[in-house]
Amino acid sequence: MRNLYFLVLFPLSILTSIHHLADASLHVKYLPGLEGPLPFELETGYVSVGETGDVELFYYFVKSERNPQKDPLMIWLTGGPGCSSICGLLFANGPLAFKGDEYNGTLPPLELTSFSWTKVANILYLESPAGSGYSYAKTRRAAETSDTKQIHQIDQFLRSWFVDHPEFISNPFYVGGDSYSGKIVPGVVQQISLGNEKGLTPLINIQGYVLGNPAARTNLESNHRVTFAHRMGLISDELHESLESNCGGKFFNVDPSNAKCSNGLQAYHQCISEIYIEQILLPNCKVDYVLPDIPQNLPNIRTSRRELKEFSGNDPSSLPPPNCFTYRYFLSAFWANDENVRRALGVKKGFEKWSRCNTQNIPYKYDIQNAIPYHVNNSRKGFRSLIYSGDHDMMVPFSSTEAWIKSLNYSIVDDWRPWMMTSNQVAGYTRTYANKMTFATIKGGGHTAEYNPDQCSLMFKRWIDGESL
């Protein structure tokens, strides 16, 4: 917990020198790491939320490259809770990505993507809650947050943002996110709807929501990992049958006196111990790397892999090899902590170290155990929804998502079928329900859209334009 003060709060000495800038925004023309001007419109800024305005939420706003005046507007929430929205902007569905070149001591270079969802929609990438990305709280009390507090603050953020951006009030509005945001997104949709009904202004033209590999109910996803492992051939028929028989279908918080179940789970964990559960086909590389003493002006240094040890605190042999899928996370720590990058983005001076996922240092209360009732309420109000699952994600298995969707008991409008990238290339499988909910799998996909961005981009374009997958 040593870094809590720096990751979530500004030092008091810095607070006294910062003027309150509610809804301060910056139009970004250039970004370090990318040659030339940005070929799309990017705005960044902070919006003050919370009971006393002591929480500053940072956002990136990318205008649609097609028709920003008429195209839908979507707010994108990254999971965690506590992960930066750079995960969306630079990894999953944004217009930029890291080149992936081996780190050589200079600023990691960026490149344009072909799969950005901003080709057909305006997207607000929000860093929520405080402590995520460049967002922060001014006091320790304001830093304390929860699932439900996030929902209220995101609604507050949006209504404040729309006041400063009235030209987008009439655009169809959607809420999107992935992973743990499955607990938050449907709640935000409901909160926006309730606020509109109460006459809160500005009214938000909410139309629906998009969720990728979403968490839905405590222990639901964990319970389905055993079945997923069996369906994927990671455990034997005999072990699966033994677990089902001896554990009663529950594979968490097992009674220690149930030796047969405990022994079976031990065998199960041995089978999957070297599996990268976010995409079971990929090498099992470390996800994040602790870089405690990153220089703040990377373009002024040139560093070999061995010299990295001096400021990273890591044995060079433990640094990720460039062929790891997670190498981009390693690069993002250097890019997002560079002083020139922060200046270009308008990050407030004095902000301490950026972390891709600050999940351990935010005082967070997990107070939504079951998000399924939110889906029920949103369906009753006629909101559209797209729920998609990478079919090789073991973190939130597609089978767990199928299970809670089926529990809604809505009739099927378009039954299970392949959806296609081209006339002869299957991209995944889909089913549509009477409550305007579409479920789709991403063939070969992982925990987020970044694993198969081309498939996810095509899926989103068709759905947001009202077309059948």
Automatic annotation (TrEMBL):
GO terms for molecular function: serine-type carboxypeptidase activity; sinapate 1-glucosyltransferase activity; sinapoyltransferase activity. GO terms for biological process: proteolysis; secondary metabolic process. It comes from the Eukaryota. Its EC number is 2.4.1.120. SUPFAM superfamilies: alpha/beta-Hydrolases. Residues 1-24 form the signal peptide. Keywords: Disulfide bond, Glycoprotein, Glycosyltransferase, Secreted, Signal, Transferase. It holds the Pfam family Peptidase_S10. InterPro entries: AB_hydrolase_fold, Peptidase_S10. PANTHER family: SERINE CARBOXYPEPTIDASE-LIKE 19 (PTHR11802:SF29), SERINE PROTEASE FAMILY S10 SERINE CARBOXYPEPTIDASE (PTHR11802). Belongs to the peptidase S10 family. This is Sinapoylglucose:choline sinapoyltransferase. It comes from Brassica juncea (Indian mustard).
